[in-house]
Specification:
This protein is an all-alpha fold. It contains six helices and no strands. Helix 3 crosses helix 6 and helix 5 crosses helix 6. The protein is globular, with a radius of gyration of 12 Å. Bound molecules: heme C.
Length: 99
């Protein structure tokens, strides 16, 4: 598991301060996973694995992450995440970094 975290997204991780990528990865698995399922294949929230999101523009995903989906359980994460961090998570999801 630790190795997967380290090698999961080396290129993207460079855009964030040291250690932040690992924190975001934990956030995705724990906080996002609490609704989207531990393996992100769906729960209260829909399946957000790479194969399901394929073709979705990463800017669109980052916008959903930052602002949530009004009228649904999907909360806005802007209070916790910067634009760069939301973009990192969008790339992480599209790259299937959770697998
Ligand atoms: C409280 C529950 C909850 C949490 C926590 C949550 N989500 Fe969601 N999410 C949802 C729901 C419900 C939807 C579906 C909204 C709709 O009906 O369009 C959704 C939709 C999405 C979508 C759009 C999927 C699509 O196919 O359109 C993405 C991407 C997403 N969430 C990512 C995340 C990420 C990343 C996190 C963690 C930072 C997160 N979510 C945390 C409930 C949650």
């Amino acid at each position: 598991m630790a190795l997967l975290l380290v090698f999961g997204a080396p290129a993207l991780a460079q855009e964030l301060p040291p250690g932040r990528a690992a924190e975001l990865e934990r956030l995705v698995l724990q906080d996002c996973g609490s609704c989207h399922g531990m393996t992100l294949k769906g729960g209260l929230g829909p399946d957000i694995r790479a194969e399901t999101l394929a073709g979705t523009p990463s800017e669109g995903l980052a916008a959903i992450i930052l602002d949530g989906v009004p009228g649904t359980a999907m909360p806005p994460w802007r209070p916790l995440l910067s634009d760069a961090e939301a973009a990192w998570i969008a790339g992480y999801l599209l790259d299937g970094g959770n697998e």
